[in-house]
Design goal:
Strand content: 25-35%
Shape: globular
Strand order of the largest sheet: 4-3-2-1-6-5
CATH topology: SH3 type barrels
Number of strands: 6
Order of helices and strands: HHEEEEEEH
CATH architecture: Roll
Largest sheet: 6 strands, mixed
Number of domains: 1
Number of helices: 3
CATH superfamily: PRC-barrel domain
Radius of gyration: 19 Å
Distance between the termini: 60 Å
């Protein structure tokens, strides 16, 4: 019985240590690159752990420059949401969560940002 208890304790300890690393692996490759396909749909939280939006898309500038993310913010149950565009550098990834802090991370600040439109009539707003 003691042997089973020891094995169970070791297994639970291994899971608790590996859990955050395994959660992070779904968007991070072994060579430390982020998979944009796994970022899309990810919920973004602020410093108070409140949901502030969802990543709708990742924008790669054709002429070089800063990578941007389009966030779906505001609204309730899918009604009244709008798209805003922010630099990916304003979003940090902690374990399996994406977080925004500072002035951009506030619900009011995101709500006051200009509405983003993809401008080609396909997908998004």
């Amino acid at each position: 019985m003691k042997r089973l208890s020891t094995r169970l304790t070791i297994a639970l300890l291994a899971i608790s240590v590996a859990g955050p690393a395994m959660a992070q692996m779904f968007y991070m490759t072994i060579d430390r690159n982020m998979r944009s396909s796994k970022l899309i749909g990810m919920t973004v939280y602020n410093d108070r752990n409140e949901k502030i939006g969802v990543i709708d898309d990742v924008m790669l500038p054709a002429a070089g420059g800063e990578v941007m993310v389009v966030l779906s913010v505001g609204g309730f149950l899918g009604i009244g949401e709008k798209l805003v565009k922010v630099p990916l550098s304003h979003v940090r990834f902690v374990g399996d969560k994406s977080m925004m802090s500072g002035p951009d991370g506030g619900k009011a600040a995101l709500g006051a940002m200009p509405k983003y439109s993809y401008g080609f009539g396909g997908g998004g707003g």
